[in-house]
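Sample entry (141 residues):
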Amino acid sequence: MTGIAERGSIVWFNHHPTRGHEQNGYRASIVISDGIIDPTLNQIALTVPVTTQIMGHTFEFPVPRGIGTPGTHVLAPQNRFSELSGVVLINNVRTVDLAARNAIVIGRVDPESEFFIGIIDRVMAIMSFPEDDEEEWEREA
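Predicted structure, serialized as tokens:
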């Protein structure tokens, strides 16, 4: 891995191999875990991918203008870009070993920004169930 991955890091790596509708190929992703989850064990982090192919799906969260990617200068010329753009696919949360995938840190999203907090809020909404339905869930169990 090139660079230090931390919460909000924008990392570039190959998502292949994948299955079904998972994001594939080289692309940017944003680290949403607190960096590397346990560096004493491995270089695993929780990430969400970014795509420039906007489809209008419910789970697409637009990337605002102005998020620089100064680290792309080390990428092949056809992969260089000065600013992150497109949408975050919040329903494609993925745990990845950044070292095994030769990830490169190419930029950073401020973890205190409305954008990053919006990502976390939406991911959390997918991962939890509404408190109003707790009684119903208990009755079914």
